[in-house]
Amino acid sequence: MKAVYLVCFDIEDNKVRTRVGKELLKHGWRVQGSVFEIMIGPAKLEQLRQRLKKLLDGETELRFYRLCLDCRKASRRIDDAPLAAFPAVVII
Predict the structure, then answer these.
(1) Strand 35-40 vs strand 62-67: parallel, antiparallel, or unpaired?
(2) What is the structure's pLDDT at 86?
(3) Phi/psi-derived region of residue 80, left when phi > 0, alpha when psi is between -120 and 50, beta in every other case
(4) Residues of 37-72 as b/e, b for ≥16 C-beta within 10 angstroms?
(5) Which of 4, 12, 75, 79 is least enclosed, having the fewest CB within 10 Å?
(6) Which range marks the domain in which residue 44 is found?
(7) 28 part of a folded domain
């Protein structure tokens, strides 16, 4: 089952930062310069983490924060608008 994660980092090297951003964009969207929201399953998350580790120097910290549905529903922008709209019904 896929989950939503907030991924953030501070990478000084432009080339590495661009590569990390491209990897993350394959799974989600950029919400700020070095902050992404991604939707990914457990196996793909581990593969992504391994690919990103290879790009980083070992000192750069990259964090994944899991965003539960209740937390996402309670999250707001500065103008008090919700960050995401959720349908009342999901058809699978």
Answers:
(1) unpaired
(2) 58
(3) left
(4) bbebeeeebeebeeebeebbeeebebebeebeeeee
(5) 79
(6) 3-74
(7) yes
| DSSP 8-state symbol, 92 | -
pTM for this predicted structure = 0.82
| Domain CATH for 52 | 3.30.70.240
- Measure the CA dihedral 25/29/34/39, to 10°: -80
What mean pLDDT do residues 75-89 have?
A: 75
Apex 33 CA angle, 76 and 1, nearest 5 = 60
Task: Compute the C-alpha angle 16/4/23, nearest 5°.
Answer: 20
Supply 37's token pair.
């929201």
